[in-house]
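Example (one chain per record):
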Amino acid sequence: MKGVLPDGLVQSATKFGVEKMFDKLYEDPEKVMPQLMDWADRFSGGKFVRQRADVRKAIEEPTHPYYPYVRRIFKDIDPHVGKIFLSNFFVNAGLFGWQKQEKKRKKYNCNIPWTILLDPTSACNLYCTGCWASEYGNRLNLSYNEIDNIIRQGKELGIYIYINTGT
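Predicted structure:
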């Protein structure tokens, strides 16, 4: 179709633009955070209304419990690491991943999770309340190939956020 850009080019251009915005964000977070939310509101297509409202409160209302936490991100995390995280969280997982997940949900008629909790090992000698690891012994480990396979399958489904447990 004439005039339509390939998905890869659109994603690359979008990611580049967002990364430039993150550069500005690290220069002046107080000024740029509300601008970034305005941008997110304009390009959201009306989706994630509650989530966007919650994020806006966390960045604009000093009494919000996450207000100080959000500021610590820009003070305590290396800017390069922070930009990679923000790009992955907002662009890969939030923008493009969600679209991919929606297509897969319809195709397979099932839920596709937004994130995967990955337990690479059960090697834990603690007995934390609510945790299962110590109940199964400390010999259950995923190989690097198994972890890679899980992540590759997740990416194919549009999942870009992985929460890893264990040490």
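Caption: Residues 1-109 form one domain.
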